[in-house]
Amino acid sequence: MLSSAIYASFFFTVALLVTTAYFLMGGLPLLTLKHDTPLDARFVRGFFNVYYRAAFWTSLGAFVSYMLWGRYPFAIGVAVNACVVALLRKHLLQAMQQLGAQIEASGSSAIRHFRRVHSAALSVNLVQLVAIVWGLLWLSQQLR
To answer: Transmembrane segments in this chain: where (predicted)?
Structure first.
């Protein structure tokens, strides 16, 4: 008999999967922005701020539900994801803010660095998505 925590675990896992995939797909077209105005930088920074908040809270919900379900490896996995998201939110958003302020003054150098930070954020997002999908596949094998 499965615990009722399984439903919460699946809900939060799907929410985390959808959040991560949605923001990855939404962040890719933002790379087409010229990033030549502070407004572009502020928009991209706000976009990632929303993602990091959503990913943190869904990871936290998944952590609690996996703990209640007794799936401790998955609880640790989503706890690690929550920590990574919190660190990225702190460091990448701070870098985006500083580079956004330099865009008008510095020009191409700040724009190039901002694009690198944006690309790095998307790359980490992709790694998170792959890890979540891998975890789901592994979990489905364990439930058979």
So the answer is: 6-31, 72-88, 120-139
